[in-house]
Amino acid sequence: MNSSKENSSSVQKLETRLILDWIYRHDIKTEDGIPLDWYNHSYMMDVYDEMAKCEKKIVCYKAAQVTFSTAAILTTLWIAKNKGIDIIYTLPTADDVKQFAGGKINRIIAQNPILQKWVKDKDTVEQKTVGNSIIYYRGTWTQKTAMMVSSDLNVYDEVDTSKQDIIEQYATRLQHSDLKLEWYFSHPSVPGNGVSRHWHKSDQRHWFIQCEHCRKWQYMNWPESFDLEKREYICKSCKGVISDDVRRSGKWVKKYKDREMVGFWIPLFICPWISASEIIKYYEDKPADYFWNKVLGLPYVG
């Protein structure tokens, strides 16, 4: 945080949100040894909180590199230890599982003494024993792996590049659970496929910001929130420049208040370290499907 006053305020907020309090008190770090940064990642606080509650199914439309996988890893480890439930965590292929375990999960555990205490040393690439619970890491290209274990929570990472019928097979492993929880997240591909099917059943939360000039609350979108000539973020109402601090200070607002499934849309432009110029350069340099799927975090219609 930028000041002791900001830090004190954040601690007060964390005390009512158990996983965020745990992250703060244990100085939880990323796989690179960097402490989690709420100053630039305030949009992730409600995501951690909703996942840790273990109350509802969750879906996320997301751009690439918005720290969502880190959140899913930490939250599933925390849930396994503190809620005592078994978890299936899927990725598209077995090779993806190996890279994910070695390049991210194991490195996060190695950076955090509390996680080293929780997770047994003898665990394999495909599972972690956390307290009395097990997290199973599986690919989605063979039916055999889908039918081997049961669970209380299934986490489907990169849904749109996974095999959809195998994901449905994994859902059957929840049949004997009282919770029957599922999380779906991915950068989307095309409408009606993968994560898009679940997004349209969710409460569709958008990151609302308040313009510092006209005080209008709004969520940002493309291209209305951009001055393409000056390469700046702008208010959709008064066209005043939107600062990084305004983007940091947003709040999640549900589009549909009566829906049971929680939905988050995380485009790259709500990340305060990403400039408008960077977004516009992606638009200028990348193929349209890349820009829509991995930058805007939206399905692409060619």
UniProtKB/TrEMBL annotation:
Stored InterPro entries: GpA_ATPase (IPR046453), P-loop_NTPase (IPR027417)
Domain Phage terminase large subunit GpA ATPase: 43-249
Pfam families membership: GpA_ATPase
MF annotations from Gene Ontology: ATP hydrolysis activity
Name this protein carries in UniProt: Phage terminase large subunit GpA ATPase domain-containing protein
